[in-house]
Write a structure and sequence with these properties.
With 377 residues, the chain is of the alpha/beta class. The chain has 2 domains: 7-115 and 206-229, 3-Layer(aba) Sandwich (Peroxisomal Thiolase, Chain A, domain 1); 135-203 and 232-375, Peroxisomal Thiolase, Chain A, domain 1 (3-Layer(aba) Sandwich), CATH 3.40.47.10. Helices cover 34% and strands 18% of the residues. The protein has 13 helices and 11 strands. The strands form 2 sheets. It has a 9-stranded mixed β-sheet with strand order 3-2-4-7-1-8-11-10-9. A two-stranded antiparallel sheet has the order 5-6. Strand 5 and strand 6 form a beta hairpin. The model has no long low-confidence stretch (mean pLDDT 94).
Amino acid sequence: MSSKRHAAVVGVAESDLGEAHGKNVLMLQAQAAKAALDEAGFTKDDVDALFTTGSWAHFPQLMLGEYLGIQPTYTGGTNIGGSSFESHAAHAVAAIKAGLIDVALITYGSTNRTNGSPSPTTLTQKYEEPFGIPSPAGHYAMAAMRHMHQYGTTSEQLAEIAVATRKWANLNEKAFKRDLITIEDVLESPMISEPLHLLDCCLITDGGGAVVIASKEAAQAAKKKPVWILGHGETHTHNSVTHMDDLTVTGAKQSGKQAMGMAGVTHNDIDVVEVYDSFTITVLLTLEALGFCKPGEGGDFVSGQRTAPGGSFPLNTNGGGLSYCHPGMFGIFLIIEAVRQLRGECEDRQVEDANIALVNGTGGTLSSTSTLVLGRD
């Protein structure tokens, strides 16, 4: 895989998480960006590419660049929801391969918990929301109900995901929710949109994150050992859920195949997996689409706490969007955790001998997916 090592992650960081009183979106991004650059041993003057997105400004890249004092020669604002940041990483790699940049900074920030989240209505959503479907929970509930009808998946199997993820969060001092829960706790929590209970749904928190990506040459000057981006893939399949061809199959089937093919790895090579968990059903559908199990087998695959600490399939090891944090778009935190796992920096939640990680972001209403395969020397 040495021929594929063109670009590496050399710095990652979060801002304050949970409830960031007194801080706005720009402050959270600046806090995370400085910490990530410091970790890499770079300054803002080393950055020649800037990537961000979000609904906090009409032109978020322009506002962030002005705020940070960065005038990039390459800029990206792809917004495909929670998978945007995996796509930003892929686009940074492409720019590095083309010789256009050496150091890219990716950031995100949100104050969804303390200031609320804007909820714009798009042209196609006028055929859904006026008729009573809650967004986004109702869309994901439709997918869960279809999977249950088609394959016999149960609420208990979905609850396995929430319970396992909380066990990882219990080992992460930064996690917003750390108290252990049981399958019964999930099933007895309030119904949000049948069949999804409250504990099947992600958190609503504040927070920001940053990732620094460097060319092979620039990475040699970084303080941290490089975590190489070995493969990437991305796609989007629809905007409104009424145009989703199959409620049980996501675009991760395509983006995952592309990323793994580029990296030259198989499922058996992957040591740790970080996937978007906006809802428990998101995880189950993603694992199936990525090919870790066959369609309809996701419920059995996650049963018996297989994805929990000590299980055979380490998944969402920081506690995920279900328990760690979820400031509106969680994809950047998937990259941060995967990098830390491959560096061996996760202490009690460290996956032993983690060499290869797969990261998959999901955006919209199961609308977009972006997949990365990361590896260490």
